[in-house]
Amino acid sequence: MPYTWIHPQSAPTAELHLWPHQSLRPRGYVRFIGITAAMTFIPLLAFLGTLLIWGLLPFVVLAVFGLKWALDRSRKDRQIIEVLTLGPEQARLERTNPDGAQQSWQCNRYWASVEMHDDDGPVPHYVTLRGCGREVEIGAFLSEEERLTLYDDLRRAFRH
Known about the structure:
Elements: E1 3-6, E2 14-18, H1 26-41, H2 52-77, E3 81-86, E4 90-96, E5 102-108, E6 113-117, E7 126-131, E8 134-137, H3 144-159
Antiparallel strand pairs: 1-2, 2-3, 3-4, 4-5, 6-7, 7-8
C-alpha cells in the first residue's frame, strides 16, 4: 500500500502518509534506459563506417533522450505527498504538490466526516473529507482497491 499510519507512543495523535505508487525504482530506471539505448543502437552497427550512420544517429539519440525525458517527467509528476494528522480535537490534511506548492485543510475532528463518492467523482470510489464548510479529496492517486481500503481505515480512525 502506498500509505502508512504512524502512531507516536507519547502523543494521542495519528498520522497518515499517502503517496502515489512508483513502479519504476531508480535501479530499474537506469537498467531500462541502458537496455533501450543498447537495443536501439544495435541496428546501427550494420551502418558503421558509412555516411548513412550520420543521418540515422541523431534520430536514435533523440528517441533515447525523448524516452528519458518522458520517464523523468512522469517521475516528477508523481512527487505528491499527503499527510493527514488526527489529533484529539483537530484533523489536518496537508498536501505537497509536485511543484512544491502546499495545500492544507483543517477542521474540528468532531465535525469532520469521511465520504465516498462511488460514481460521481473524477475517479471511481472517490474519497473526500468534509468539514468546516469545505470538502477536500484524499488519495485520488491511489488505485480503486486502495481507495476502498483507505475509506475503511479513515472511517475507523475518525470514529476513535
